[in-house]
Amino acid sequence: MDKEFKIKGLMMDPLTNSPIVILQNIENGTLLPIWVGIFEANAIALQIERVDTPRPMTHDLLKNVLMQLNAEVEKVVVTDLKDNTFYALIHLRLNGESVAVDSRPSDAIALALRTDSPIFVSETVIANSKNLALTKEKLDPEDVRKWLENLNPEDLGYKM
E-assigned strands of 64-118? Predict the structure, then answer.
């Protein structure tokens, strides 16, 4: 069963200087960090800040194409976590049919923000993320959990 999450914020990993999207479980507040690329983080940050660009960015283009095709983003789901790599699906409604499209979570999240679509995370990902490493060297999962739980709002570069 999938659990609904929202974007808690966007920050830089203090150890690797890589962008992290922090998702928060709507029901219980559990945090899920997803490391993303700098360009994807920028696309997410632009939408969080409601910055209009003079020309459509890639995710805006995708949203516009979907609108022209009368397709609707029903939801995005972070479906799997293998070897510290997250996987996602974008669930579309097109001509009355449901279609699932493979996606990187960062792209799915950027599109979900632009279409006001819900973000879900599978229970498999939630369970597997407890063993997620913050860096290439393995850190104790308990240390990771404590680090995430003790994040201050000021630590999150962008807050929702």
Answer: 72-82, 85-94, 97-103
Q: Band the pLDDT of 150: cuts 50, 70, 90.
A: low
Q: Which residue's entry shows tokens 């516009």?
A: 64
Domain count, the chain: 1
Answer whether residue 140 shows pLDDT above 90: no
CA pair distance 148, 13, nearest whole angstrom? 11
**Parent domain of 27:** 2-159
* Per-residue pLDDT, 137: 42
Cβ atoms of 31 and 24 within 8 Å: the answer is yes
Q: What is the CATH number of the domain that holds 42?
A: 3.10.690.10
Non-local CB neighbours of 43 within 8 Å, separated by 6+ positions:
57, 58, 59, 106, 110
Q: 50 φ, ψ to 5°?
A: 60, 40
Q: Which one has a higher pLDDT value, 138 or 43?
A: 43
- Give the three-state DSSP class for 160: coil
